[in-house]
Input
Amino acid sequence: MASMDELKKAAGVRAADMIKDGMIVGLGTGSTAAHMVNRLAERIKTEGIHVTGVSTSWSTTLQCRSLGIPLKEMGEVSHLDMVIDGADEIDPNRNLIKGRGAAHLLEKIVASMTDNYVIIADSGKAVQQLGTKFAVPLEIIPGAIAVVTERVKKLGGEVKVRMGAPGKDGPVISDSGNLIADAKFAPIADPDKLARDLEHIVGIVGHGLFINMATKVILADEAKGLIEF
Ligand SMILES: O=C[C@H](O)[C@H](O)[C@H](O)COP(=O)(O)O
Output
């Protein structure tokens, strides 16, 4: 029986093998994206392909540096040939919840730079409706936490500031210096509307709903192998 990690690796390897020589590629964050980055490094070494990455977090940047993957700064580019990333929930329309690792704001900026956005995951991430298992991660300007909590409540969500244990006392602070919180909604009937409503709340600089962004999903399933849609 394949472990969860083996399934994530299968999806990561499949996506890394889609990268072509000469591409500039956005590299996501998380345990599944890490497998993709490892495979990309292996291809750069063994096949001699020239690929430049754009990282979505300090975590991925450090991994790329240790593996010798050349990187460009996010602020230097406005178009990417491809972006590959993991997700926390994926619905049948390829809408996503992302941000378990607090990287969703930078991941969304990078994802907005491509029309080739590939999501990789084990099949346990597939849901019929977003919000089934996960809360919606928010990135919030610290001084706006009280007003954001009130406004999100009016939309039916319960906001909890995410705590940094075991590696840090107090709240999780994003790579951009903002507070991370999670807003729990009942399964989300209209994710597109909720995404727009959250964008209208001053003080929220990013949320983990990724609507109509992914162009391909690769799911690794124990019984069915790789599923693409
Ligand atoms: O902030 C983290 C990201 O959105 C991740 O891509 C997402 O949480 C999936 O991570 P993993 O592949 O570790 O489940």
User: Anything to note?
Assistant: The CA atoms of residues 40 and 81 lie 15 Å apart.
